[in-house]
Amino acid sequence: MENPSKTELAQEIARLIESDPQATPMAYDVLMVMEEADLVTIRDNLERTKRTRNNEAWYDELVQKCGKECS
Predict the structure, then answer these.
(1) Does 3 have pLDDT greater than 80?
(2) 3-state SS string for the chain
(3) Closest Cα to residue 16, out of 60, 34, 8, 29?
(4) Inter-CA distances, 14 with 4, 6, 27, 32, 41, Å
């Protein structure tokens, strides 16, 4: 698997930030001056946060369904 370039990482981070209303905004120019390792860490953290939020939404939906069906 090929490693993504700094540009690809910055674009992916920008998309993740844009899709997360609670993420701290970061200018694209700032991302481009960061080291590649830092960009990978930021991307991984944003993806982890996104997965956690998706899991929380799924769990909340499950609790609501169970609450209605189990009552």
Answers:
(1) no
(2) CCCCCHHHHHHHHHHHHHHCCCCCCCCHHHHHHCCHHHHHHHHHHHHHHHHHHHHHHHHHHHHHHHHHHHC
(3) 8
(4) 14, 12, 8, 11, 14
Q: Which residues of 36-60 are buried (b: 16+ CB within 10 A; e: fewer)?
A: eeebbebbeebeeeeeeeeeeeeee
CA nearest 33: which of 2, 3, 10, 4? 10
pLDDT per residue as tens digits for the range 42-65: 999 999 988 888 778 777 787 788
Residue 3's region, left for phi above 0, alpha for psi from -120 to 50, else beta, is beta
